[in-house]
Design brief:
- By secondary structure, the chain is of the alpha/beta class.
- Among the domains are: 184-271, Histone Acetyltransferase, Chain A (Up-down Bundle); 450-560, Rossmann fold; 746-850 and 864-870, P-loop containing nucleotide triphosphate hydrolases (Rossmann fold, 3-Layer(aba) Sandwich); 875-999, Region D6 of dynein motor (Helicase, Ruva Protein, domain 3, Orthogonal Bundle); 1031-1138.
- The chain is 60% helix and 8% strand.
- The strands form six sheets. A five-stranded parallel β-sheet has the order 2-3-7-1-8. It has a five-stranded parallel β-sheet with strand order 10-11-12-9-13, sandwiched between helices. A four-stranded mixed β-sheet has the order 14-16-21-15, with helices on one face.
- Helix 20 (478-488) links the parallel strand 2 and strand 3.
- The radius of gyration is 55 Å and the shape is elongated.
- The two termini are 43 Å apart.
């Protein structure tokens, strides 16, 4: 888009859009998939199915980008899922194979086990007979065993006593050994390095050497001892039993004589190794004493052990004797043992095999359904992978091109076209994108080239996203909030997007301006901000605006409700009111089913994951098998619960079906009346307003029928329509539903009372006709309702701040803002304020008053309950409406100005006869005129009063609003009629003179008015029918193309006109215009822009066509018919010299008159300025036989009759009457011919 800021610093050169060949090549170059060339042909074909973006190159690139994103993501997911399924199926197939092997193995082991058992039984019989001979030896052996057991018991007692003695000293000894083990080699090296060791070290080492049996205690011997490899281990492993009493006595004497040397503190000071050695020395000396003490007990223990050994030897002897007896038995026993062991092993293996077989068969049986389903899913995944490029192509087209459509039905229709073009028979978009609702589709994937703009007057889009930040553009700190979201990669919804904001331009263009290592940064406004790649931006708009649809940086998503969704919502509301327990039960059931389905899916994924990630034979993995069984058990329980839930849901649906017809009918009616905005932008009806009406109908009618609902909807909708549009809606609904609706009128007072009686925070919008002002009546209503705390403001730019304060003030419970059409630019902010008040549940009644305006915000219209207010039609009613101000009635000229003002107002009902336009004559003009006359009569000379007043009324107060010369002539006539004498006191009795005559209009004007009304009604019904049938622009265009082709009009070779006569030049010029218009029509039908396309789809003739054919019909189908006839006639007469013309077959009558003057000047050899034109109706004049004569036919007259002269028409006269042939004579002014001047008459061509 061309922003003004760029125009100052650069030139813009438009590049034509790529053709299909270029599009195909670009798609092939950018896409990340390897497909055949035919696949890339689909990109331009599918893209060009959407009329809106056929010339948008950036959107085509976004289309490809979205395809790449979807394809890479979906392909990765499908491949990962396929890999898991392959592994899971492989594991189950492997387990099935193992089960068959186990069955065969168990059968073989059973046969071998039976043979081994028989062999063991035979050996056991022989052993039993042989063992009977050894009973005596066994008795003796038993006696020896008994004695041995007694000796063993005594031995245990002695051992217990010895252990008790050693119990106290052994911990000390162990601690000493541990201390020695902790001596570092460096400490020992340090001692060895001493030339003359301290006495403490020498004494300790002397004790250690003597205790270990070394008698040489010289320093050299000590150093040699410490130098031994493994000296620490030798000391630690020293056996104290080697210490003799003599050795112990010498060491004790040394320790007694040198006691200080063996103290721990003293030893530590000498060396780090000395202290552990001293402790070890003391512990071993003490331990030696204990060993000496328990020596008798050990001797007795040894004696017992000796006796025990003797008994054991005897037992061995007896055993040897028994061996002689059992020689034969031994061989049999060995054989028996061997057979028994082999049989036991076989039996154990068999049991293990049977147990594994039973468990395996159970597992395989339980997972058989999963095995079958997974194999089917694997096949389906392979098919999905094959169809994935086409599915991604259709989904990308939907995400990029379809969001702009205003209804779900249109979006689905385009989706069907995309699928058909791609060759997809069935394509479930929601399932493909893993979305529950259609609205979620547009937020699941975003192109890096487009920013999503969501048009959602209901603002439900905000609740559809979780963990998002809301940035309100109406707040001053919005940029700071957006900066933080950019840095931390948050998802942002920019609320209040009502116009293009240049500070957001870099974000909408997705431009990364620089990188520093892993950091990226962009420009936000005039600031450099760090950019996190996880950042996502959504723009939320409650209304459309001019730049929204034309901006190539935006992907517009219009979240208008669909018919099916609306029907489901209304059904839920109906059941909630009629059968609340049923709806609650259904909601609980759906919630439970969703939870169970989610859990079932996660369990199945867990089951598949455990199988695919397992290693080895799963039949040997007990933990895995038990886990699989637990998962399968939970899965079966959930599946059973889901079946029960499905049965309950089926029963609930059977009970709900009785309300479906009403809900669907109500939804259809909503989508019919929603199209009223095609008649007038102010007729926007929001879904929330309709839902509230539906609820009221349900509560007020216990047995609500379709007819009753339709009547209530019509009553509610019609109060917000102007009278003509009420009739259109009535006819439209009557024809579609074969009914006869009743029209009920509602006064403004009743409307406001009904609004105020509702406890809800309601916004009332009073739509006024031009010049109507209900302010005084609203004040009276407020007074009658005893509303003391109310605020009423007539809006202007100076009152915006006051209005905002009044709306935010909790004290003002009733606020009325009038003349909102003067502050349309502020209305989006007003809409935001009212939404915030509604969200905060503030109990405030708000009345808005405005005239119709095309830029009135849709969100404000849809949240308002509308009422149309206009002045009562009729001259008398207009005069009476001016009597509201008693102070003005005191002015002498009140009646004169009142009737004059009423005539000016009432003539607007007869456009284009009364006025050519619907001028804005209001109460302020009337008041200004009264004050002006009063002041003029006081200050201006009486001689000039009348002319002065006429001039001000005719040229300033009323005449200053006129746009055409014909309207200025009418105003001049009215001023002269009503202000011909200020001295007279004007009083008119409307009963003695018809209102039409007072207005100065033809007597048969009502025939024209009724005819125009019927035409407008028919056009209005046609508009609603066309909108309700949901024909796309392309379909409408196809019908027009077919109609145009039927005319067989084609451009011809353009002819230069310089060599022809003026009249022939005129016709050649007309034919060239025909060629231009033919080319223009063909171009618009084949390559129309949005504006032209909207005109054509609404059966309106584009202005560019009317520029070349100004008198052409306003309806495009009639225009084509009329132009076809005119073009053929002009081409037929292109080189004709006949001067008889039918003005209905010309494009420009004014140009014809100029050509005729030039032709007359040439033929008569007279200067153009010397020509004088005379013309006659219906008869030739023989006196002009020497002049240049032309005849014109095809004229008609409206508002009068012609019979040699103009005469008044009667009330029953036809609307149009044909005029006779017009004879035009061009005469030389200076000729002798003298003809009396004949009055001319102004006529209008068809």
């Amino acid at each position: 888009m061309e922003y003004l800021m760029w125009n100052r610093v650069c030139h813009i050169y438009r590049v034509s859009f790529w053709n299909e060949t270029s599009q195909r090549q670009i798609a092939k170059m950018i896409t990340t998939t390897n497909e055949e060339d035919n696949f890339f042909n689909l990109f331009p074909k599918i893209f060009n199915l959407c009329d809106t973006f056929t010339n948008d190159s950036r959107r085509f690139l976004a289309f490809i980008d979205t395809f790449n994103r979807l394809h890479s993501e979906k392909k990765l997911n499908l491949q990962e899922k396929s890999s898991h399924l392959v592994n899971g199926v492989s594991k189950l197939e492997q387990a099935s194979s193992e089960v068959e092997k186990l069955k065969e193995e168990a059968k073989q082991q059973q046969t071998i086990l039976a043979a081994k058992r028989q062999e063991a039984d035979d050996a056991l019989t022989l052993i039993t007979s042989s063992m009977q001979n050894s009973e005596e030896q066994k008795v003796e052996l038993e006696d020896i065993k008994a004695r041995t057991e007694k000796e063993t018991a005594k031995l245990k007692v002695r051992k217990t006593e010895i252990d008790a003695e050693l119990k106290e000293i052994e911990p000390t000894l162990l601690a000493a050994k541990a201390a020695v083990g902790g001596i570092k080699p460096e400490s020992l090296s340090e001692i060895r390095s001493l030339r003359a060791p301290p006495e403490v070290i020498r004494d300790i080492l002397e004790g250690v050497l003597r205790l270990m049996g070394v008698n040489d205690t010289s320093w050299v011997s000590m150093k040699s001892f410490l130098s031994r490899r493994g000296v620490r281990e030798e000391i630690m492993n020293f056996d104290a039993r080697k210490i003799t009493p003599e050795m112990r006595t010498k060491v004790e004497a040394l320790m007694k004589s040198k006691g200080e040397s063996f103290e721990e503190q003293q030893a530590k000071r000498a060396s780090a190794a000395a202290a552990p050695l001293a402790i070890w020395l003391k512990a071993n000396v003490t331990y030696s004493k204990v060993l000496h003490k328990i020596k008798p007990l050990e001797d007795e223990q040894n004696k017992l052990e000796s006796g025990l050994r003797s008994a054991m030897n005897r037992m061995k002897s007896l055993t040897g004797e028994l061996q002689g007896v059992e020689v034969e038995v031994g061989n049999l026993r060995n054989k028996l043992n061997q057979v028994t062991v082999e049989a036991a092993e076989i039996e154990v293996n068999l049991k293990q095999t049977n147990r594994m077989l039973q468990r395996s068969e159970s597992l395989i049986s339980e997972l058989s359904s999963e095995f079958t389903r997974w194999k089917q899913q694997l096949n389906d995944l392979n098919k999905e992978l094959k169809a994935l490029p086409l599915q991604c192509l259709v989904a990308a087209a939907y995400l990029t091109l379809v969001g702009i459509e205003c209804s779900s039905e249109k979006r689905l229709k385009l989706l069907e076209k995309f699928s058909e073009k791609a060759g997809l028979k069935e394509f479930d978009l929601l399932r493909f994108l893993n979305c529950d609702k259609e609205e979620d589709v547009f937020i699941c994937t975003q192109s890096s080239l487009l920013t999503t703009v969501v048009i959602d007057p209901s603002r439900k889009f905000i609740s559809s996203l979780s963990n998002v930040d809301i940035v309100d553009l109406n707040k001053q700190d919005w940029q700071r909030t957006l900066e933080l979201c950019l840095r931390f990669g948050r998802t942002v919804i920019v609320d209040g997007f009502a116009k293009m904001n240049l500070q957001l331009l870099s974000l909408m263009r997705h431009e990364i301006y620089g990188t520093e290592g892993s950091r990226q940064w962009i420009i936000l406004g005039d600031k450099r901000v760090d950019y996190n790649s996880n950042f996502r931006l959504f723009l939320l708009a409650t209304d459309t605006f001019s730049e929204l649809y034309s901006n190539t940086l935006l992907n517009v998503v219009n979240l208008a409700p669909s018919n099916s969704n609306t029907a489901a919502m209304l059904l839920s509301i109906t059941i909630k009111i009629r059968r609340p327990e049923l709806e609650q039960k259904k909601a609980d059931l759906e919630r439970s089913c969703r939870d169970m389905e989610s859990k079932l899916k996660s369990l199945e994924e867990e089951l598949l994951h455990k199988l695919s990630s397992s290693t080895g034979n799963i039949l040997n993995n007990d933990q895995l098998i038990q886990s699989l069984k637990d998962i399968k058990k939970s899965t079966n329980e959930i599946e059973s619960s889901l079946k029960q839930a499905a049965a309950i849901a089926n029963d609930l649906n059977k009970e709900r079906v009785q309300y479906e017809q009403l809900a669907q009918f109500a939804s259809n009616v909503y989508f019919e009346i929603r199209e009223l905005y095609h008649l007038n932008h102010m007729y926007r009806i929001g879904i929330q307003e309709y839902v509230e009406l539906f609820i009221e109908c349900l509560k007020s009618n216990s047995d609500l029928t379709n007819d009753r609902l339709l009547q209530d909807v019509y009553n509610e909708a019609s109060r917000g329509l102007f009278p003509q549009d009420k009739i259109i809606l009535k006819r439209f609904l009557d024809s579609r539903h074969s009914t006869k609706l009743m029209t009920n009128e509602l006064s403004l007072s009743s409307f406001l009372q009904s609004q105020f009686s509702n406890n809800k925070n309601r916004v009332s919008l009073i739509v006024t006709s031009m010049g109507s002002d209900p302010s005084a009546e609203i004040v009276e209503i407020f007074s009658s309702l005893n509303l003391k705390e109310y605020c009423l403001m007539s809006m202007g730019s100076d009152y915006i701040a006051k209005a905002e304060t009044a709306l935010e003030d909790n004290k003002s419970k009733f606020v009325c803002l009038t003349n909102l059409h003067f502050v349309v630019g502020w209305l989006p902010k007003l809409s935001s304020i009212l939404m915030r008040l509604n969200d905060n549940k503030q109990n405030k009644c708000i009345v808005l008053v405005s005239e119709c305006h095309d830029e009135f915000p849709t969100s404000l219209l849809e949240m308002s309950t509308k009422f149309v207010y206009e002045s009562v039609p009729g001259l008398k009613a207009q005069v009476n409406s001016l009597n509201i101000d008693s102070s003005l009635k005191a002015i002498q000229e009140f009646n004169r100005i009142a009737y004059f003002h009423a005539v000016c107002i009432e003539r607007r009902q007869y456009v284009p006869f009364g006025w050519t336009k619907n001028y804005d004559f209001g109460f302020n003009d009337f008041k200004s005129a009264l004050n002006l006359i009063e002041e003029v009569k006081k200050s201006v000379n009486r001689k000039w009063q009348l002319n002065f007043i006429r001039g001000l009324l005719q040229n300033v107060i009323y005449g200053g609003k006129l746009d055409t010369i014909s309207d200025a002539i009418i105003m001049e006539s009215l001023v002269k009629q009503w202000f011909n004498n200020l001295e007279s006191n004007v009083e008119f009795d409307l009963r003695s003179k018809s209102e039409i005559s007072i207005l100065g209009l033809p007597s048969n004007i009502n025939i024209w008015k009724n005819s125009l009304l019927e035409e407008n009604l028919a056009n209005g019904v046609q508009i609603l029918e066309r909108a309700a049938n949901i024909k796309t622009h392309r379909e409408e265009l196809q019908l027009l193309k077919q109609k145009w082709r039927n005319t067989n009009l084609r451009p011809t070779h353009e002819v230069k006109t310089s060599k022809y006569s003026p009249v022939v030049q005129f016709f050649v010029s007309e034919c060239n215009k025909v060629n231009s218009l033919i080319s223009l029509i063909e171009n618009d039908l084949n390559n129309s822009n949005n504006e032209t396309l909207n005109c054509l789809s609404n059966n309106e003739t584009p202005d560019t066509w009317l520029t070349l054919f100004p008198t052409g019909p306003q309806k495009v189908d009639k225009f084509i018919e009329k132009f076809s006839k005119t073009a053929n006639e002009l081409r037929r007469r292109e080189n004709s010299t006949d001067f008889n013309f039918n003005v209905t077959n010309l494009l420009s009558v004014r140009s014809l008159m100029n050509a005729l003057r030039q032709q007359a000047s040439r033929d008569m050899s007279v200067d153009i300025q010397s020509l004088k034109i005379y013309f006659f109706w219906g008869k030739q004049c023989t006196q002009f036989n020497q002049s240049f004569m032309v005849t014109l036919t095809g004229f008609v007259i409206e508002g009068a009759l012609f019979d040699d002269c103009l005469i008044e028409c009667s009330p029953n006269s036809e609307l149009q009457s044909s005029m006779p042939t017009l004879y035009i004579y061009f005469v030389d002014k200076v000729s002798k011919l003298c003809i009396s001047l004949i009055h001319t008459y102004t006529v209008l061509p068809y």
